[in-house]
Amino acid sequence: MENIALIDSFSEFKDNKSIDRVTLMSILEEVFRATLKRKFGSDDNFDIIINPDKGDLEIWRNRVVVADGFSEDDNEEIELAEARLIEPDFEIGEDVSEEVKLIDLGRRAILALRQNLISKIYEHDSTNIFKHFKELEGELYSAEVHHIRHNAIILLDDDGNEIVLPKSEQIRSDFFRKGDSVRGVIKTVELRGNKPAIILSRTAPAFLNKLFEQEIPEVFDGLITVERVARIPGEKAKVAVDSYDDRIDPVGACVGVKGSRIHGIVRELGNENIDVINYTKNEQLFISRALSPAKVTSMEIEMYEEERNGKKGRVSVLLRPEEVSKAIGRGGVNIRLASELTGYEIDVKREGLEEEDVELTEFGDEIEAWVIKEFKNIGLDTARSVLEASVEELVKRTDLEEETILDVQRILKEEFEQ
């Protein structure tokens, strides 16, 4: 097989992969040099001439003419008698350039060369895909459902790139069929072997942030900035927004008339409830807004010297009794998101706590912590608040068994009887 014929056969890779002819020729030279080095021990004295326009290639080996019987390296030196078979008037010390044909490399070397070229082209293609998607980390991206597995959905974009949406990155209510278009943010891009692993996420806070940019013109134009986002995917989110233009109401602009602007985002996120609040650098005011719809009476902030579990301090918030359950939210969702949004651990205290009442945490030796947490999640953080609620109501509002609730109330009653 002539050199040019081999190159023509390799052109199929250029057609099948996103690789230009010049790059293909560069890879071809690299592969040929590796083959020459394996066969002759060195490729330093070889010239490889590639014409990317015509697609032809020539290989020339350069050797120095030495006296007969004095050659120490057949690759770099050629004896006079052999040189004169090429050109009769060669003399000792002159340079000889001799073209190397593929047939001279041997059939096995040619097969290995072809396989090496395939590998190099795929490696080049994977590297380009990796670099492309690495730059897109954190950006919004759409792809089509190609295959549905138990623990992940495999997507393909318009260029045929494979993108993975793991179960852990899906919203709980997500349901997709083959052919559906899926939006998310590129969460991570890694090279596993020579293949890029592209992970899409619909649960990351960045997804909500990017949806605001896409759906709300003022956010896209930079008139409104999304300062912070906290999410429990598919359930509830809090978004703090701000504007440098005093004429713009950032919350009103994001929500729209009767929620018209935010409705598309809510629908995309499986009816995730989104609270949009005004951001401020005033810590007390920001914490109060983050705890909405509850109205805060007062608060005390204790700053940590160093962050603890990602929190910069602890705040004790005083609320009227009827506001406690609002601040905590169903299952503790509201207070958890407020804590994540503000960066503070938040303790809720009931205003007007009677002297004879006792906080549930005081019963830690007799009542398990997870049981106390169940009561606190529904706004019941004192002994009397638990005793005043009916067993039926507590069974309905918590994940506790009736027997556990009766046992807790017995312990609390004994405290007051004493």
TrEMBL record:
GO terms for molecular function: DNA-binding transcription factor activity; RNA binding; translation elongation factor activity. One of its GO terms (biological process) is DNA-templated transcription termination. Its main location: cytoplasm. Residues 233-306, 311-381 form the K Homology domain. Keywords: Cytoplasm, Elongation factor, Protein biosynthesis, RNA-binding, Transcription, Transcription antitermination, Transcription regulation, Transcription termination. It comes from the Bacteria. It is found in: Cytoplasm. It holds the Pfam family KH_NusA_2nd. GO terms for cellular component: cytosol. PROSITE patterns: KH_TYPE_1. Monomer. Binds directly to the core enzyme of the DNA-dependent RNA polymerase and to nascent RNA. Belongs to the NusA family. Participates in both transcription termination and antitermination. This is Transcription termination/antitermination protein NusA.
